[in-house]
Each structure stands twice: as C-alpha cells, then as structure tokens.
Structure of Ferredoxin:
Amino acid sequence: AYVIGEPCIDVLDRACLDECPVDSIYEGARALYIHPDECVDCGACEPVCPVEASYYEDDLPKSLVPFLQDNARFFAEPLPGREAPLGSPGGAAKTGVVGADTELVAGHPPRE
Ligand code: F3S
Ligand code: F3S
C-alpha cells in the first residue's frame, strides 16, 4: 500500500483526496492516513502532493518508515474520542473527517 508520512502533518494540502479512485485516504486532525487494505496501489496520490508526503511502502525514505505502521495503526487501534477502531470502513466518505490522530502524529511538534 501507499503511506502518507510526516510531511503531511499540519500541511494537509488534500490534493491527494481528489485523485484516489477508491477513497482510501482518510482525514485525521493534523494529517491524512492511507488505509493499508483499501488502497489499491494506483499511485495517483503520490505525484500530486506538493510536499512529497505519499510513498509506496517499499520506497519510503528511512525517516518515514515509522509511518508505515502508523497509517495501519490509525485504523486498527482506538483513537482519542472513539471507543472502537475504525477498521475497514470501505471509503473515507463513510467516516467523513475523523478529526483524531495517532500518538505519533499527535505528538509531533507543530510545524511553523
Ligand atoms: Fe497531505 Fe499531501 Fe495529501 S500534504 S493531504 S498527503 S496532498
Ligand atoms: Fe488511493 Fe493513493 Fe492508494 S490514490 S489507491 S491511496 S496509491
């Protein structure tokens, strides 16, 4: 799957959202997350991101490797304010803006 990493935090350009044919990019509070099982690896989100936040999982720069697990964690674990994990909603339209982040993203220093 593709993965959205640190460069997206506090930038949230959202150009990627319009490109995804399966609606597998979900909106947290400070970043967006790609659903590892719903993404079909079309790659359309990668070139449109102005800050190069989206990568195929095997092509992640070393510094962004933690975001591979973290994108999965966004769906597999409960988020602040939500008792149940998101699981596999079948498209971001089903959840709307989730409005919460993983610990990794929530704990990231604010971008100036
Ligand atoms: Fe983030 Fe880039 Fe999409 S900044 S919202 S991954 S276009
Ligand atoms: Fe969508 Fe990007 Fe995957 S456009 S299908 S999240 S590669």
Notes: The mean pLDDT is 97. The CA atoms of residues 57 and 65 lie 8 Å apart. The beta strands are 2-4, 25-27, 32-34, 54-56. The chain is about 25% helix and 10% strand.
